[in-house]
């Protein structure tokens, strides 16, 4: 069968495209800096701008945004962080540990303009980059603190402060802050929670650490939702002090709220069936404590 | 070095894992060792003997006990009074690590004095001691950061270090008791243990 000329050209282009390096390496680097903790790179391909940590060691994108549609959440795990709304749909105070490009707190600020939003980021360079390249800025109700998450939460607990919605997003990247994986830390997190508060932790879905971490969360909270998507390598833990709502309640909430989250690209109605309480980890693994927390060593095997 | 490596882990629940916490720990260990070298050298001029030498090991072990037993009561008031994690971790490091590390620092110069018999040999002996103690430090660092934290709890590792120090002190006392005139030759192998 003879092919038309345009078809042939198309074929050649397709072949050429396959032979070219993947898109990410064609990305234009618009900013590079070495901070106290990591190498920070900002790249842009078309309208898609990404923040990367330690790119030379092969880390993937930390966070991305569409410059022409800044509301849209590009990654599964950022979208998944809003599944906690199924348990608490109207938080008045929100705590986010780990700023990244700021997409999670900015979405909260957009959704709940009256809520108080505290963000804790250990690396001031990340804050600068988020402000300069990802449109992050403090507002009257939203403020970023340069601090380590653990002492920040410990102090908040001593002062008797409570948060309705807590996002732990400090674990992506090259190094795991081991002091934020322990049962003592989760105990401190619990002191800043009320019965209605929801904790959303972006954690690890692979390696031995998955088992250890699951055991630790289970001891601290009892049953929790394990939230995984086939399209994402992330696992999100969703926990509450109160007993978890039933599947039906989740479905009902997701229908009620999905409209609010549409413009961010969060498919909330898909989430309830993905929230699982089934134990799929080795329960004999040792709980992580301040005395025993070799997270970085456990991840490697 | 084992204790130094664990220092960050002990401080992190209160002061976090920021770079400044490592900075505090290393600073205090360096200052404490400097003080220890100075004092140990000074002490070695006054009738150097194996019993004093053994006491360094046992004393370091005794002053390491608060790190195991009272770390929380020591760090909590510091955490509550000093908001800045840099100075918080600096003060916590002083209270937890300064004294035991100073005493450990006294061992090196004192060992030189005990081992050196003639002037020509002094450089050789000092070199040998630095070799052993630094090698021990390297082993302590690697062992702790690669393996011990994976196998044991922090306090178990610290108890191990305390036991090693007491054992070293005990062996020195015992050999001194058994063969009065000949303590010097033995000391080198004990110095190793301090890592």
Give your account of this protein's structure.
The complex is a heterodimer of chains A (301) and B (195). Chain A has one domain: 3-Layer(aba) Sandwich (Rossmann fold). Helices cover 32% and strands 24% of the residues of chain A. Chain A has ten helices and twelve strands. The termini of chain A are far apart. The relative contact order of chain A is 0.13. The mean pLDDT of chain A is 88. Chain B has one domain. Chain B is elongated and about 55 Å long. Chain B is 85% helix and 0% strand. In chain B, helix 2 runs parallel beside helix 5. At the A-B interface, helix 6 of A face helix 1 and helix 6 of B.
Shape of chain A: globular
Taking all residues together, what is the mean pLDDT of chain B?
A: 89
**Strand residue content of chain B:** under 5%
* Number of contiguous helices of chain A: 10
Class by alpha and beta content of chain A: alpha/beta
Computed CA radius of gyration of chain A, to the nearest angstrom: 21 Å
Q: Report the total helices of chain B.
A: 8
SSE order of chain A in H/E notation?
Answer: HHEEEEHEHEHEHEHEHEEHEH
Number of domains of chain B: 1
Query: Can you give the mean pLDDT of chain A?
Result: 88
The span between the termini of chain B is 6 Å
Largest interface: A-B, 25 and 20 residues
The main pleated sheet of chain A reads as:
8 strands, mixed
> Which quaternary structure do these chains form?
heterodimer
In whole angstroms, the N-to-C terminal distance of chain A is 53 Å
What is the class of chain A in the CATH system? Alpha Beta
Structural class of chain B: mainly alpha
Detail the poorly predicted runs of chain A. Answer: none
Concise synopsis of the structure shown:
The complex is a heterodimer of chains A (301) and B (195). Chain A has helices spanning 5-19, 23-26, 76-80, 103-111, 124-133, 149-158, 183-191, 207-221, 247-261, 295-299; strands at 28-34, 39-45, 48-53, 61-66, 93-97, 116-121, 142-146, 163-168, 193-203, 225-228, 235-240, 275-276. In chain A, the strands form 2 sheets. Chain A has an 8-stranded mixed beta sheet with strand order 7-6-5-8-9-11-10-12, sandwiched between helices.
């Amino acid at each position: 069968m003879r092919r038309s000329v345009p078809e042939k050209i198309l074929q050649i282009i397709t072949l050429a495209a396959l032979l070219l390096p993947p898109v990410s390496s064609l990305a234009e680097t618009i900013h590079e800096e070495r901070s106290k903790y990591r190498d920070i790179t900002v790249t842009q391909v078309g309208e898609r701008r990404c923040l990367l940590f330690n790119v030379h060691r092969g880390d993937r994108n930390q966070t991305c945004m569409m410059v022409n549609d800044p509301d849209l959440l590009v990654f599964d795990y950022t979208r998944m962080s809003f599944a906690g709304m199924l348990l608490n749909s109207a938080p008045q105070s929100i705590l986010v540990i780990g700023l990244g490009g700021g997409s999670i707190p900015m979405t909260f600020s957009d959704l709940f303009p009256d809520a108080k939003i505290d963000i804790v980021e250990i690396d001031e360079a990340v804050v600068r980059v988020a402000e300069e390249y990802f449109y992050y800025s403090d507002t009257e109700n939203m403020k970023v603190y340069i601090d380590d998450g653990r002492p920040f939460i410990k102090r908040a607990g001593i002062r008797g402060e409570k948060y309705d919605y807590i996002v732990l997003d400090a674990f992506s990247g090259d190094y795991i802050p081991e002091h934020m994986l322990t049962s003592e830390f989760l105990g401190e997190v619990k002191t800043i929670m009320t019965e209605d508060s929801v904790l959303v932790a972006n954690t690890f879905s692979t390696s031995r650490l998955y088992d250890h971490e699951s055991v630790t969360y289970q001891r601290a909270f009892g049953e929790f939702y394990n939230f995984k998507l086939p399209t994402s390598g992330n696992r999100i833990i969703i926990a509450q002090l109160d007993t978890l709502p039933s599947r039906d309640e989740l479905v009902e909430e997701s229908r009620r709220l999905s409209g609010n989250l549409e413009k961010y690209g969060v498919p909330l109605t898909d989430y309830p069936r993905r929230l699982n309480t089934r134990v799929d980890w080795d329960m004999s693994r040792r709980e992580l404590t301040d005395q025993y927390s070799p997270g970085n060593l456990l991840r490697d095997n | 070095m084992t204790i130094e490596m664990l220092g960050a882990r002990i401080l992190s629940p209160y002061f976090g894992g920021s770079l400044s916490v490592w900075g505090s720990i290393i600073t205090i260990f360096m200052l404490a060792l400097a003080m220890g070298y100075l004092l140990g050298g000074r002490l070695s001029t006054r009738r150097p003997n194996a019993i004093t030498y053994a006491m360094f090991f046992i004393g370091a072990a005794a002053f390491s006990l608060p790190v195991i037993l009272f770390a929380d009561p020591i760090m909590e008031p510091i955490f509550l009074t000093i908001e800045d994690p840099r100075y918080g971790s600096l003060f916590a490091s002083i209270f937890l690590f300064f004294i035991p590390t100073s005493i450990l620092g006294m061992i090196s110069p004192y060992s030189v004095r005990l081992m050196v018999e003639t002037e020509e040999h002094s450089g050789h002996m000092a070199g040998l001691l630095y070799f052993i103690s630094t090698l021990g430090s390297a082993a302590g660092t690697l062992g702790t950061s690669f393996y011990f934290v994976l196998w044991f709890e922090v306090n178990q590792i610290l108890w191990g270090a305390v036991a090693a120090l007491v054992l070293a002190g005990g062996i020195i006392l015992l050999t001194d008791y058994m063969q009065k005139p000949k303590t010097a030759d033995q000391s080198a192998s004990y110095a190793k243990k301090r890592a």
